[in-house]
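Second opinion, please. Please look over this fold, written as tokens:

===
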Amino acid sequence: MLDITQTGSGSHSRADRRSILRAGMLGLGGLGLADFFRMQAQATEYRTTPTRKSVILLWQQGGPSHLETYDMKPDAVRDIRGPFSPISSNVSGIDVCELLPMHAAIADKFTLIRSCSHNWSGHNDGIPMMVSGYPGWDDSRHESTNPELGAVVNRVFGQVQNGMPVAVGMGARHYSYVPTTATGYWSDTFRPPTVDKGLNTGVSIEISRLNDRRQLLDSFDDLKRRVDSDSVVAADSFQEQAFDIISGSKARDAFDVSLEDEATRNRYGDGWGKQALQARRLVEAGVNFVTVGVPGDSEIYNWDDHAVNGDLPTAMRQRLPRFDRVVTALIEDVHQRGLAEDVLIVVTGEFGRTPKGNLRKGNSDGKMNWGRDHWASAMSILVSGGNIPMGQVYGATNSKGEHPVHRKVSPQDIHATIYHHLGIDYRKTFNDPAGRPIHICYGEHITNW
């Protein structure tokens, strides 16, 4: 792989435009970006031009408890209602956990879906269900067996528009991949680029170095300077398209959160907050679909709150203040910048947690902890923007938070709503390896808000 991170005399060989492009942005086993785009151009399946619409998915790994966040049951018995109380918001009839005061202050800018339900309560089937619409899991690759949301957007919109990728995955990985980016039975050429701590171009720019603005600028400028200085054969349109991503200032600047004013950066905070701010910059620059996971070094990394993993009340007191800050910072920022009609924000994990909590001895410390287990029959999802009516609760669960009793929706319905917002016909099909047509989505987009 071509190394552009060294700058000393003799530290790198001259590189022409073609050799850099062969290194590629996505690191697809030697497949160059130019080859990659040629393959996409040969595709005959459903393809459409992206609109200005975009989606930011804030993925909550592990399955957040709806009973400690967005669907509290204060009148239930102690083991169901949990240790926290609801607080009123600025919208009559909407309450949230007492540890989410920033949410309560802007409830007029989001809607809570309390009636999403499915049947897959393991991580390795719940995750693919929520991000692909199908529960299949490939144990050898540690990811979904079906194309996920980001991969569908990538394939339908054609990977790149105006020097920007159309889909990006950021943050925490589940096993080897960022949820929403798996291609399943499709070619890996449809996998969206993923970012850990900075812009991973796949040309040996160390990701950790890209946290530093000066090094980020130097890396890209050095690449472009060296390419422009070489005598090369005129590139075709596919090479130009690939080169725009690697060396263009648009992508570089979109990932550079230091260009934001200090007050905005402070509002979001570091870690996961920085990635959420980066996501807003990406959609503003033209990216249509961004998944933001929670970094592994974050205090809110994993919502898998079994008692054997730790004490749920303690975890929530540590986790929810940062969660509260980042989610509301993104929502307010999108609204203040006039993006709310075009940008749909979705906050979800793979399922909810059991209505009845339990005491177990912790695996790590041997202490008695209180926690909740996996529960796919009921979960809450926050949505904001996307021209959806805000300041309301959609659907309801029963008095114990066990299952929906009003306006039940499935993960497929959530997907259909996302695709509809983006301008993608979710009723279209792609063929599987056996030649059978498989629908992008079997759900229906939500209309009765």
In short: The chain has one domain: 36-198+255-439. Residues 1-30, 198-217, 226-239 have pLDDT under 50 and may be disordered. The longest strand covers residues 379-385. Residues 36-198+255-439 form a domain with the Alkaline Phosphatase, subunit A fold (CATH 3.40.720.10).
